[in-house]
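assembly run, all chains below
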Amino acid sequence: MIGQARDPVCAMPVATQIARSLDHEGERFFFCSELCKNAFAWNPGAYVRRAHAADGSEEPARIIAYFSMEVAADPRMPTYSGGLGVLASDTLKSFADLRIPAIAVTLAHRNGHFAQSLDGEGRQLEHPEGWAPESCLRPLPARVEVLIEGRSVQVRGWRYDVVGLGGWVIPLVLLDTDIAENAEPDRHLTDWLYGGDDRYRLAQEVVLGVGGVRMLRALGHTEIEKLHLNEGHASLAALELLRGTQQPQVWDFHDVLRRCVFTTHTPVAAGHDQFGYDLVRSVAGDLVPGDVLRMLGGEDRLNMTRLALNLSGHVNGVARRHREVSQDMFPGYDIGSVTNGVHSVTWTADAFQQLFDRYVPAWREDPTMLRQAASIPVAELLEAHGTAKRRLLDTLRDRTGRTLDPGALTVGFARRATQYKRADLVFSDLGRLRALGRAGKLQLVFAGKAHPRDGAGKDIIQRIVRAGRELGADVPVVYIENYDLELAKAIVSGVDLWLNTPRRPLEASGTSGMKAAHNGVPSLSVLDGWWIEGHVEGVTGWSIGSASHTLGGVTDDAADAEDLYAKLALVLQLFHGDPERWGAIMRMAIALNASFFNTHRMVHQYASSAYCK
Ligand SMILES: *Cc1c(COP(=O)(O)O)cnc(C)c1O
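ok done. output:
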């Protein structure tokens, strides 16, 4: 048999029996020509490293560093609170499938977010949801130090591997200050996700941003070609890069701008992290001289979004409408848009995975192929959906003791319980809703946690539970406790219709409707965020209200509710009266929307608009 090797200079395949060869540091290399052999002999080091990177025997350089305060990488790791963390993890999964050379950084959040239960009145009870990185992650060899309130705080890291379809690995580094050498309060800096006061929050951002960049350097990733900041919590990482460029008296802003990519997610000014400069100095010391920090982060307070805007050469919102809103909020900056997506394989239920494997064989590697779902027979779509729906109803029965009717139009609403999402809009007029339920069988499934300090969000959960009690058997309403990744997948795939009623323009993107689309579940949604791009009336789903928005304007709840009921009546009729047409809508939700609103497409757009610049 003829041995095969690759020429380390030109990368052509060569037969080892007949090729020219050369021994270098105990290893034999083969060449196609005298030309390549001479080039190698002249500078072997340059070619050896490249050859090893190509065959995977050497850890390749990670040129993109992705920073996010939350990452929902694994159901065993409750280190997320909602869409931001799920987006981060779906992004890393697509990086891995597409073999993008990236490494990611977050905090270990040993206490997780919290586990939710509801009492008889729908009041939210919060329980600790601790986890131990030791039980499932590998410790990293490096330790770094950050200064917090003048104390040296040691930071270590745990490694989680996000593995792609072809085996490519994206390492996720979870930073952890729970080390015996640290003072007692500092040991808990990486425990609580979005917990504590401003001081705690800022200390966490120092660990994530400053500690994260130092950790990557300590692990040998000295060439951070691109630093991707997923929301402003990680802005101090850009500042740490800037520090690294400092020659005496000179800051290389252009180098930092070239490297930093900033994705903003927050469409209201009040939502952006801000800290008083007294607090900043007391917690973080002088990372850079005060006048430089004020120039970059704002005159009166350190605004983390402004800091990222000033240090990033590429800035984007997460949907086209969100780009406009962000541009209005921050005039003077050039803000682009890359619309979010979801990781297709992760969010597609088993029954639909099998269906796609049969009709769209390439969909796992290339979800744009899902447009071919347009030729899947309706009967098979309805059958796959029936399987997913039965699964949800079984889960629901096991978790809540309630039995729902598989024949009723089942409407789903699951996301963080917070005011602007208006989960209770559908209960504005219980008489109307009851009448709809009598005209055609209708039931509602809810889930979602409110942040422990979000009183208004908790009130919404109680209103839903109360409304459900009042509606009784006319329109069964179930609130499932403890929303998490697994429950999310069961609900988005098992309901018939996905409801979304945010106050415009506060839903920057929204991603749960994209997950639903992957399972042939159409949306009934306010025209905001991604739905402005994904909505084709009566084809991929239905709209509520108009797409117009005015900044600071008031959304008319009553008008939106009115439109919601009118559309729901139409949807009920179609669902119960015309399964063939209903199936065609399911099909187009997949073909038009799953084929586009996925993180593979999104990562391609980041690569061409931001990473390759
Ligand atoms: C997808 C997802 C979200 C985000 O949903 P939105 O519609 O974007 O608010 C939140 N939590 C979990 C667990 C999810 O899976």
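The chain is about 40% helix and 20% strand.

The first strand starts at residue 4 and ends at 6.

not gonna interpret more than that til we talk
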